[in-house]
Amino acid sequence: GVYESLRDMKHKISLEVSRKGMGGDVKVGPGGIREIEFFGQIFQLIRGGVVPVLQERSILNVLKILANRRYIPQNVCNDLTEAYEFLRNTEHRLQEFSDQQTHKIPSDPVGKARLAASMGFDKWEFFALELKRHMEGVHYHFNKLLATEDFETKSEKIDNELKDVWLYLIENDHSNKVLLNAGFDEPNEVLRLLEHLRNDPETRSLSNEGRKRLNKLIPLVLKEAGKSEHPHLTLNRIIDLIKVIERRTCYIALLLENPDALVHLVRLSNASPWIVSFLALHPVLLDELLDARTLYIPPEKSDIINEIRKKLSHIPAQDLEYQIEELCIFKQINILRIAAADVTNALPLMRVSDHLTGIAETIISEVLELSWNHLIKKHGNPSCLLDGKTSERGFVVIAYGKLGGIELGYGGDLDLVFLHAATKGQTKGGMRAIDNAQFFARLGQRIIHILTAHTAAGSLYETDMRLRPSGSSGSLVCHIESFKEYQVEKAWTWEHQALVKARAVSGDANLARYFEQIRKEVLILPRSKTKLQQDVRDMRERMRKELLTPEPGIFDLKQDEGGMVDIEFIVQYLVLLKSSQYNELAGWTDIVRLLETLIETKIVDDSTARFLKKAYLEYRASAHMLSLQEKPAKVPDNEFIDLRENVKKIWKTVIENDQ
Predict the structure, then answer these.
(1) Does 154-295 match 529-656 in CATH topology?
(2) Which H/E stretch holds residue 193?
(3) Which CATH architecture has domain 154-295?
(4) Where do the H-state alpha helices sit in 299-419?
(5) Of all helices (H) and strands (E), which one includes residue 428?
(6) What distance lies between CA 316 and its chain's CA centroid?
(7) Are 336 and 284 in contact (CB under 8 A)?
(8) What dihedral do alpha carbons 588, 594, 597, 598 form, nearest 10°?
(9) What CATH number does domain 351-523 carry, 3.30.460.10, 3.40.630.30, 3.40.50.2000, 3.30.70.100?
(10) Is the pLDDT score of 381 beyond 60?
């Protein structure tokens, strides 16, 4: 781009000065008049089109304008102005004496003394010191221009050596030494990684400009990755990302133009391959690496609600694809922020789940709003009654599973159930009236379509609707009274177990409260201990047969005996067994707070409940970290031995003891 061209021009100036030995020339030498003029011209080229006042011929006026507009600090303006006046006066004195176009400082003693005297100095040495001060100051500011430097520091020497490694890919002692010094223990493996990148079809098809950018980026990647805790692994992950994004050279330019972004990328790549894969799927998120103030601090739910509503307000109501894409990008940005805070230990696991749950709830609410507005415009408003009173919307989204239990992770489906309170009759006020129940069926279909639709920006969530009454064979959207009747009279024990984690996440507030009332009424129903134990055992065995594939030497954190699901089943069993006596058990949907309630009610002794809480959180933390490493929730079976053996004992005491 423009910046690259200007940098190239500046680099050529420096090379010419160095090649032709122009030291001692007040015009074209290092720190001379030309460098001051180039300094001003850079800003004129970049900003002159939008700031007309910069279209000024006098360099001194340009410098004043740049300082007044705060494009440069005042001290830089002062330095360059004083230097320019001093150097111009020196130039004039030189030319007045020789009566010719010269800019070279004399080398003979007489010439030096004459120049010093003409500039008002008693001795050559005093003039020479002042000249040196001005020219070094100019050259310093010139070197800082466009964030590059033209003198080789120790750091630049390393950069150049790494650049040579990438450009030539020669497996020799020198290359090995350079890579070892950069932090890589296995230089030959690094060279192989680089060779694979060089020969990748995407790399080979790069334009000249793209190849130039890549050639600049790879040495920087090597330098930063070499500083990380796991250099080879981190480099491998970043190279995989580069293979995906390199044809869109704007992303390569972003990393080149913003060194901090590359630092953050290396940091996150070192911590988690999942984040790198996430960035590869959604490279637009690389922009988020530019600002550490937002990257590692996920916003609160109220802030993300305001953020997404503001974004959606600028999109035409009829442009559904654009709305979905905006929701996708919104979700991806906020998940990246959570993951960045997560892998850098800025957020504990419970808060990670809270934030991920908050994003899902916000998106569901916005999707419901978009779907509702579309349908009422087309069909009008449905009539709804709740407890004999008119209900404004009469629709609510119920979350089950991980979302309902406020334990959402980075992947997985959303377990949802849709309920409505429609009366008999048709919608009113739209272009084409339809049956009220049909309106809500279409509302449910549209919500699922928006949540699962694939767009250029990806998709929002996969949904699982099988927990609705009668499962996949039941209506997509169920009347609230039918739901109540089903739960009280027809539901299986496992469906009541699922109800433990269910809660309203979006929709009509009155209908949400009515759902909570139904949920409580169902959970506090008296139950036969023997039958409940048998049902819970049967369901656990069925689940284990369907979801567990035994592997020698491996412990499945979720499905193996003594694992997470066993703890969840123990808690759900106790909630269903004891809620008729202790109604407060029906007040929570998450396992941790339910265990705390079991302690408060003394249903389970303090040490047992605290142990289950400890085991559950340790299992969750381990599974969570494995997911960030793109690994299944499985560990060697010599881990968590004490935890799982004690969970097995508690299972036997609680679920299998019929006393």
Answers:
(1) yes
(2) helix 187-199
(3) Up-down Bundle (1.20)
(4) 301-313, 320-343, 349-379, 401-404
(5) strand 428-429
(6) 27
(7) no
(8) 140
(9) 3.30.460.10
(10) yes
Question: Residue 322 — very low, low, confident or very high, per pLDDT cuts 50/70/90?
Answer: very high
Among 46, 66, 68, residue whose Cα is nearest residue 2: 46
34-58: buried (b, 16+ CB within 10 Å) or exposed (e) per residue? bbbebbbbbbbebbeeeeeebebee
Bridge partners of residue 506, in order along the sequence: 397
Q: What is the 3-state secondary structure (H, E, C) of 438-469?
A: HHHHHHHHHHHHHHHCCECCECCCCEECCCCC
Tokens of 275: 């984040």
Query: Ramachandran region of residue 502, left (φ > 0), alpha (ψ -120 to 50) or beta?
Result: beta
Is the pLDDT confidence value at 21 over 80? no
**Residues belonging to the chain:** 659
* Closest to 350 (Cα-Cα) out of 596, 587, 584, 519: 596
220 pLDDT above the threshold of 90 = yes
Of 65, 63, 66, 77, nearest in space to 137 by CA: 77
Q: Band of the pLDDT at 147, cuts 50, 70, 90?
A: low
The two tokens of residue 129 are 């010191």
Contacting residues for 415 by C-beta, under 8 A, at least 6 apart: 399, 400, 401, 402, 403, 404, 463, 464, 466, 467, 498
- At 77 the three-state DSSP class reads helix
- pLDDT tens, residue by residue, 397-418: 999 999 999 999 998 799 999 9
Q: How far apart are CA 603 and CA 506, in angstroms?
A: 33
Residue 419: its H or E element: strand 414-420
If DSSP codes are grouped into helix, strand and coil, which group holds residue 160? Answer: helix
The beta strands (E) that lie in 485-640 are given as: 503-507, 554-556, 634-636
Contact 398, 351 (CB under 8 A): no
What is the third-level CATH fold of 2-147?
Answer: Four Helix Bundle (Hemerythrin (Met), subunit A) (1.20.120)
**CATH code of the domain occupying 529-656:** 1.20.120.330
Q: Are β-strands 477-479 and 414-420 bridged in parallel, bridged antiparallel, or unpaired?
A: parallel
pLDDT at 274 over 70: yes
Give yes or no for a contact between 249 and 207, defined as CB atoms under 8 angstroms apart.
yes
Global pTM?
A: 0.73
Residue of 168 and 149 predicted with greater confidence:
168
What gap in Å lies between CA 370 and CA 363, rounded to an integer?
A: 10
Tokens of 433: 């009236």
Phi then psi for 414, rounded to 5 degrees?
A: -100, 120
Structure tokens given for 344: 């850098």
The domains of the chain are located at 2-147, 154-295, 351-523, 529-656
- Beta carbons of 509 and 394 less than 8 angstroms apart: no
Spatial contact of 218 and 212, defined as CB atoms under 8 Å apart: no
User: Which among 462, 466, 461, 447 is positioned nearest to 507, based on CA atoms?
Assistant: 447
Dump the DSSP string for 585-624.
GGG--SHHHHHHHHHHTTSS-HHHHHHHHHHHHHHHHHHH
Tell me how far apart the alpha carbons of residues 501 and 353 are, in angstroms, rounded to a whole number: 15
pLDDT tens per residue, range 31-48: 899 889 988 888 888 777
Pairing of strands 463-464, 385-386: unpaired
Rounded-to-integer distance, Cα 393 and Cα 407, Å: 28
Each residue's pLDDT tens digit, 488-519? 999 999 999 999 999 999 999 999 999 999 99
Look at the block and give the residue holding tokens 């466009």: 146
Q: Is the per-residue pLDDT at 153 higher than 60?
A: no
What is the rounded CA–CA span in Å between residue 342 and residue 285? 17
Percent of the chain past pLDDT 90, that is, above it, reads: 70
Q: Which residue has the tokens 């705060």?
A: 70
